[in-house]
Every structure is written in structure tokens, then in C-alpha cells.
């Protein structure tokens, strides 16, 4: 397939401006927009302001939306950073319109956490740009700027309308975003597609597009046996201990092979479709490298590529996370805790319903507690429920992205899913009713929430080309 | 039984000096001898010095023994407070000799913890002296001083020799004490009996003498599934999770009714002797008040006095304490912890052997893990083992204490045991080979390790009389 002439020009322009892109990313990385830290809240807002300035120079009309206050654990309140909305100037209703979502805040980072470079000073080493936010998610947002600027600089008008929703609270639960989106629902009336550039490839070589994520149902089991913590020497042997009850209940949830023991839990899981295994078979995934990266001392639950990917993406799983209220420090303490709270969650998949999962789990735990026979107070409930995200990967929005990737990498992207839960995918799906595309630019080893976060030069520059191509391919959709 | 003339005089003297005793206790309480806090270490040593001064004015020849350094968690070291040894002047080999043990350090306390008075300012309210250490264990030590002073002031020579072992690290594991006692083993050659005034009555009205304590075998189960904590969305569903394994193993230890499920664990428990239930029947113990004080929402494991006391004192029990390495905070986190450590302990009783208990538990957990079938790394071991303490309550030392209590309270003390583990009881039993008496002066509601610790005026003054009587009764032993 020969490259359309316009893409040749755009790619040549992008290839001639590497240093400028790096400088822009360095500026963005230097702003410590850590949303988790109240003391960095000004930096979050500064990052919004900086981005507004950059977008405006590219012909994007911007608006900052005040989304209210955050309640802190100490009962004080703190203003949330504004959400930045943007629309390309000279909005043309005859063109297709894409909403771009990204986030400008970052995870906490300190040199002393084990970074090899200063986290807020972008550093080039061996073809990789190290710095907090380089991959998650400042780099991809700057790749959008690069793509738009390339159109301007080759003297071509953008062939589609772009709208932006950029927030600075994503790493802290996207506080306030969904409410704002709902209140601005009509802003999506003239939108055709959504594009989210905020996840990563499955591996480090093969470009990917993602069309599904698992949901999350988070549960608490609370058991109470006394009005105060008790000394196990003085009182051990005469009371039904809350932790004994809780450990029993938590032991009834999943077996050694990861099978969830709650009756009916698998009933609504989408059956494997006739040609589904072929899709997985085509995906680039190295089982041995994956196993090695986890550092698990023994076998994994599955040893084939298809089974591993399906159980990470399209089958539910249950993980026990821990217990609040029990002794958790190092050393030893002889306590009978008065009240303990077990935490576990189920990753849900289509077509499981959050409401049904909640009922199945709570009924099961209540039944098990009845059979156990303890007279203690017990309560099981779902503290958080987010639905799975699933999108049609054969939709024209996905096909445009597939073509865009082929133009740049000269190969078909893997159509993947993800196992984790990104609530914004659902927010956009529900508020807009449009197809939502997850178009990741970075690699799985970018270390998004870890030390030494980086984006490869290749992914940054070729990612800018992918977005320029995607803009072109969307414009070609009939 | 009419009171011997000497006791009449001693009691009259004690009754005439209440204010002086309160002043002395106030001085002692004002010294913040918190052994857990390195910053208060000087105060611990000051408490030793203060006590030496007081004992010397009472004719006790004192010696401070350097017991070396403490290693702190940050790898620094800190000098331990000296142990104070004392011997009555003009030691007479023809008289009986009693070693008195007590401790001069206290638990941490802050007004902001929920105290109603300043914890280090002794405060009299409603017949109770509030202050940290008032009952545990400064009050009882000052009661000894009061008893000795009473003998002096009525012009009578002490009819027995007294030796003192007073430490200031009891609340921090009696660091260095046992080693020192062993190195001074010959110091016990001329000793007849040991008397420890450092526990409490079973209730708040009935005086008690205690002759038994349970032992403690503390276990850890460590399970490891990965080289780093994993995101449950990204990795849930494909690995054997360490916490699933651990919760399963911990669920195999004890049933809902407190029965330990480890085969053989009860084999060596001393059978109930023919007249044992009668002993328990005589003890003053209010089942309803006990139940209410715990604040348990449902039934206790037993509902009769005999069963409750026996299961607190003379039967073993197993308590789960908590898990290290899992998520323990409030809120929610979707983590698969890489390594988790379960903690539980068994309170042991005569004639259980610590070595056999360790083998039974470790073999059982290893077997259960094999049956479970997880490929993860698992290790179960005993991190701490202390034997149960048991003493002959019909020994002349106990009979002397019984008579002493009758002189003061005009009733028979209850001969009780305790459920917790006080290692110094075993240290003295083993190093001296002598009968060890636990002679508590305070009430069960004194709040030894809680907010608003107190000693009742009655217990403080009558306790001083009990000790004066005990000195007399020991002198009468043939």
C-alpha cells in the first residue's frame, strides 16, 4: 500500500522536528502536576494553563471548566483543577468530529524512590525519554499537538474537527469529571468518535488497539466481636473471634486454581465465539517473558498464550486484597481485633451485570456465615462497582486507527483488550453514545506508575505520525 | 481469728500515713518512665535512681546492674536502664528470705489518648488514684516500701530478709533481665521464696492469688507469589495469589467454636482432676458482667463460670492476629500482594511442650499446603515460644499469702490462674528453683495498659497491709 501524499509530507515534517518535540515534553514533565498531593494542586492547574496556551497557538479554542471542590480526609476542602475543553477554530459541521481525551496529572515520584534520573527532568538515555508523565499521559497529549502542528506547517487545514477533554485528576479517580461531562452532554451532539490515548501496548514491539476493559466490583466483609481490641492471653478461648470468622468467609471465595466459588458467578460471561481463539492466536505475546517479568516462583495458572490472555481480559477473576483492623505490622502482637474488614474484588466482563454480581456475592457470604454459625455481627457489601468496557473493534473508528498504524509501522496492529478498569472509557461511552477507541502510543514496559517511567523516542515520534494518520483516515470515512 | 498484736500495730501505722503514701506515689507517677520510647530512657533510669534512694532510706542495700545495650529498629543502640538489686541490711541467715520482683517502667500514655486527667499527674477522684503506673506497677512497689517503713516506725526489726529485683524494661519485653539473672544465679542461693506483685485480681472485690499462666507459641506463615506487588486488573486471573493461599491455610487452624483443628494439639493437656471443678466453683466471677465488659454482640463460647475460667486459664486456645504485607489501610486498593505473612498464636498450658506444639503446627500447615496444591513458596515457623507457668498453690509460700490476705480482708482469697504469659515468672522459677507467688494488689478494672489507669485507695492501703502481713506470715513458717 503506497502512502497518501499528504501523509508523506506530514511524516517528513514530524521527522524534521524531533528536538522541538522533546523540548516541549521536557517543559511538560518539569511541571509537578501530582494530583494525589494537595501541595501540588497549583502545579496541576499550572499544567492545565500551560496546555491551554499550547493548544491556543495551534488554533484550538479553549475553555476551562470549574468542577468544584475536593473533600480531603481531614475534612478540609481543596479546589479541583479545572477541566480543559477545546474545539478547533472554524468548526466545520461537514467534517467528522473526534473527541480526544487525555490527562495532564501524574503519579507521585521522587528521586529517592529509586529513580535513576530526576523524575521531573526529562532525560534522554539509549533512545528513551525518562521522566514522570513521559508516557502516562503527557507524551501522548504532546503527540496530538505535534500532529496538529504538522498539518499547519505543511499548509493544510485539519481535515476533521477535534475537540479536547483534558483533565488533571485522572490519577486520583477523575474526581468531578463524570458529573461535568453529564452536565455538558449536548457538547457531544456534533461528535462522531471518541479517541483515548491513555493505555499501553501489550508488549514493546507490536502496536495495539484496545477495545475492552474489565469492570470492577469491590467488596467489604465487616465482622465485629467486641467493643475494644482484646488481649489474646486474657480473653483467648472464650469468645468467637471476628478474625476467625472473616478468614473463614474469605477462604470460601476462590479455590487454589483461581476458580471463583460463588454459584452463578460465571453464568453471564460471554461464551467464547467460534473464531475468537483465532483472534488471540494472532496477538504477539511471549508467555515465557511474561512469566519471567512477574517473578512468580512456580507455575502460572495457565501456560498457553490464548488461555493467559483470555483470563487477563475476557474472564472474571477474584483477588483478595487484605484486611483492615487486624495486626499488620512487622513483629508480633497478641491481639484479638475487635473489628476486621476483609477486602476483595472481582474483575467483571461482558455480560456480567454489576447489580447481579453484588447480589450473588452478598447472598453467598450471608449464606456461608449462617452455615458457619458465629453469633458475631457480619456485614458484606459492595463498596464500588464499575462496569466492564467493551467496544466494537470492527467499527469505522477502529478501522481508521488500524489503517493509521499500518501507514506508520507497516503492519497490522493487534486488537487487544485490557484486564484493568478505566472508568473514563465508560463515562465517554455513556455520555456520548459514540464509539470509544483506546489508541495507546507507549510500550508495556514504560513503567507508567513505577520508577523510571519513560517513553521510547520511537513511540513518541511514530505515535505523533499515527495520530496525524488517524486524523487523515477519519476524514476518509464515508 | 484474732489479729496478732504486731499486725494491729502495723495496720494502725499504715492507716495513719495515707497522705504520705499518696505523695510518694505521686512522685513516682510524675517520672515518665516509658520504656517503649527511646526519648524517655533517661526517665527510666531516673526512676531506678529514685527508687534506690527510697529503698536506701528504708535500710535496703542497693546495687545497680548494667545490663547492656538495646538494638533499635534503625540499627542504632541505646543503653538499657540498670536493674536495681537490693538486700535488707544486717542480712540474717537464720531468717527466711523473700525476693520481691516489680517493674518501674510504664506503658505509653498521653492526655490526648482519651485520658480524663493528666496521665503523669496523680489525681484523686472518687476514692481512686488516677495516673500511669498507679497500678502497674509503681503502686505495688510503693506498697512494699510502706510495709517496710511500718515495721521500722513501730520499732520492730523486719522478721525476714528481703531482696529486690526491680527493672525498668518490663513493658518492653524485660530486655536483658533473664541474662542478668542467670549470670547472678548464686544470688538466689540463700533465698526461700519469690513474690511477684505485678498482675491483677480477677474482679474488683475479691482478693486473689495466682499460681498459673499460659505459655505462648507464636507462628508465622509466609507465602510469596511474585517479585513485586501486582495490579489485580492487569494480572488477576493468571497467577496463584499468595493471599489466597495464606487465607486458606489460616482458615484450617480453628473452627467456629474455638476448637483447634491441628491433630494431637490437645493430647498433652492436663486432664481435669477429680476435685478441680470445685476449685473453680468457689471463685468469685460474674459471668454476665464479664460478658458485658467485652461488648461482644452475641453469645460467648461458654456460658458457665467454670467453663469460662477453665478456657481462659487451663485449656489452650488459638488466635489469628493478622496479616503483614497485604492491604491494611482504609479505602480500597486493587493489589495482588507479592508476599504475605500470617500471624497466629497458641496459648499453651501444662503439660504441652513448646517443641512438640511447634512440630505439630508446622507439620500440619505443610501438609495442608501440599493438599492445597499451590506452586508458591510457603514457610511456616514458630517465631517465639514461652512455656506455661504453673506453681503449687498449696505451698507454704502461698499459704502465707493466703493468711496475710485473711488478716486484712477477713476472707479467703480466690486461688486463680491467668491466661496471659508473663515471662519473668519462668525466669525466676528457673533461675532460683524456688516457689514463685503471684500476689496481685490491684483490681481487674485498673486499666493497666489503657487510658485512665488507676489504683483504688482501698487496694493501695490494704495492699500495703497485705504485704506487711505476708512478711509476718513468712516469718512464721517453720
Automatic annotation (TrEMBL), chains A, B:
<dbReference type="InterPro" id="IPR002933">
    <property type="entry name" value="Peptidase_M20"/>
</dbReference>
<dbReference type="GO" id="GO:0006508">
    <property type="term" value="P:proteolysis"/>
</dbReference>
<dbReference type="GO" id="GO:0046872">
    <property type="term" value="F:metal ion binding"/>
</dbReference>
<keyword id="KW-0479">Metal-binding</keyword>
<dbReference type="InterPro" id="IPR011650">
    <property type="entry name" value="Peptidase_M20_dimer"/>
</dbReference>
<dbReference type="InterPro" id="IPR051458">
    <property type="entry name" value="Cyt/Met_Dipeptidase"/>
</dbReference>
<feature type="domain" description="Peptidase M20 dimerisation">
    <location>
        <begin position="212"/>
        <end position="372"/>
    </location>
</feature>
<dbReference type="GO" id="GO:0008233">
    <property type="term" value="F:peptidase activity"/>
</dbReference>
<dbReference type="Pfam" id="PF07687">
    <property type="entry name" value="M20_dimer"/>
</dbReference>
<keyword id="KW-0645">Protease</keyword>
<comment type="similarity">
    <text>Belongs to the peptidase M20A family.</text>
</comment>
<dbReference type="Pfam" id="PF01546">
    <property type="entry name" value="Peptidase_M20"/>
</dbReference>
<protein>
    <recommendedName>
        <fullName>Peptidase M20 dimerisation domain-containing protein</fullName>
    </recommendedName>
</protein>
<dbReference type="InterPro" id="IPR001261">
    <property type="entry name" value="ArgE/DapE_CS"/>
</dbReference>
<keyword id="KW-0378">Hydrolase</keyword>
Amino acid at each position: 500500500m503506497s502512502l497518501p501524499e499528504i501523509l508523506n509530507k506530514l511524516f517528513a515534517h514530524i521527522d524534521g522536528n524531533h528536538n522541538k518535540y522533546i523540548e516541549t515534553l521536557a517543559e511538560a514533565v518539569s511541571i509537578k502536576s501530582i494530583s494525589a498531593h494537595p501541595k501540588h494542586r497549583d502545579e496541576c492547574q499550572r499544567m492545565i494553563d500551560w496546555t491551554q496556551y499550547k493548544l491556543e497557538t495551534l488554533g484550538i479554542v479553549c475553555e476551562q471548566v470549574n468542577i468544584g471542590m475536593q473533600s480531603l480526609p481531614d475534612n478540609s476542602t481543596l479546589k479541583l483543577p479545572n477541566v480543559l475543553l477545546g474545539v478547533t477554530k472554524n468548526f466545520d459541521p461537514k467534517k467528522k468530529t473526534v473527541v480526544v481525551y487525555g490527562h495532564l496529572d501524574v503519579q507521585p515520584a521522587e528521586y529517592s524512590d529509586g529513580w535513576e534520573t530526576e523524575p521531573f527532568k526529562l532525560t534522554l538515555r539509549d533512545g528513551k525519554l525518562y521522566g514522570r508523565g513521559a508516557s502516562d499521559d503527557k507524551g501522548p497529549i504532546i503527540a496530538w499537538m505535534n500532529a496538529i502542528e504538522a498539518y499547519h506547517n505543511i499548509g493544510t487545514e485539519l481535515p476533521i474537527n477535534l475537540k479536547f477533554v483534558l483533565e488533571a485528576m485522572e490519577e486520583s479517580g477523575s474526581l468531578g469529571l463524570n458529573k461535568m461531562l453529564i452536565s455538558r452532554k449536548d457538547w457531544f451532539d456534533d461528535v462522531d468518535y471518541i479517541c483515548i490515548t491513555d493505555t499501553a501496548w501489550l508488549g514493546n514491539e507490536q502496536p495495539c488497539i484496545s477495545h475492552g476493559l474489565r469492570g470492577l466490583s469491590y467488596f467489604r466483609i465487616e465482622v465485629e466481636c467486641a467493643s475494644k481490641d482484646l488481649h489474646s492471653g486474657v480473653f483467648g478461648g472464650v469468645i468467637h473471634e471476628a478474625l476467625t470468622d472473616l478468614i473463614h468467609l474469605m477462604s470460601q471465595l476462590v479455590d487454589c486454581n483461581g476458580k471463583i466459588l460463588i454459584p452463578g458467578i460465571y453464568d453471564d460471561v460471554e461464551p467464547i465465539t467460534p473464531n475468537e481463539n483465532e483472534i488471540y492466536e494472532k496477538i504477539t505475546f511471549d508467555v515465557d517473558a511474561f512469566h519471567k517479568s512477574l517473578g512468580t516462583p512456580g507455575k502460572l495458572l495457565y501456560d498457553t498464550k490464548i488461555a493467559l490472555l483470555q483470563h487477563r481480559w475476557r474472564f472474571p477473576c477474584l483477588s483478595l486484597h487484605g484486611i483492615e483492623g487486624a495486626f499488620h505490622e512487622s513483629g508480633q502482637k497478641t491481639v484479638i481485633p475487635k473489628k476486621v474488614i476483609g477486602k476483595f474484588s472481582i474483575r467483571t466482563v461482558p455480560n456480567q451485570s454489576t447489580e447481579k454480581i453484588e447480589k450473588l456475592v452478598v447472598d453467598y457470604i450471608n449464606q456461608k456465615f449462617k452455615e458457619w454459625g458465629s453469633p458475631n455481627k457480619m456485614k458484606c457489601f459492595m463498596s464500588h462497582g464499575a462496569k466492564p468496557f467493551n467496544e466494537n473493534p470492527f467499527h469505522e473508528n477502529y478501522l481508521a486507527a488500524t489503517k493509521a498504524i499500518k501507514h506508520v509501522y507497516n503492519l497490522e496492529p493487534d486488537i487487544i483488550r485490557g484486564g484493568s478498569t478505566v472508568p473514563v472509557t465508560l463515562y465517554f461511552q455513556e455520555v456520548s453514545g459514540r464509539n470509544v477507541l483506546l489508541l495507546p502510543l507507549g510500550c508495556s514496559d514504560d513503567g507508567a506508575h513505577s520508577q523510571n517511567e519513560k517513553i521510547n523516542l520511537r513511540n513518541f515520534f511514530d505515535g505523533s505520525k499515527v495520530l496525524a494518520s488517524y486524523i487523515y483516515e477519519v476524514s476518509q470515512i464515508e
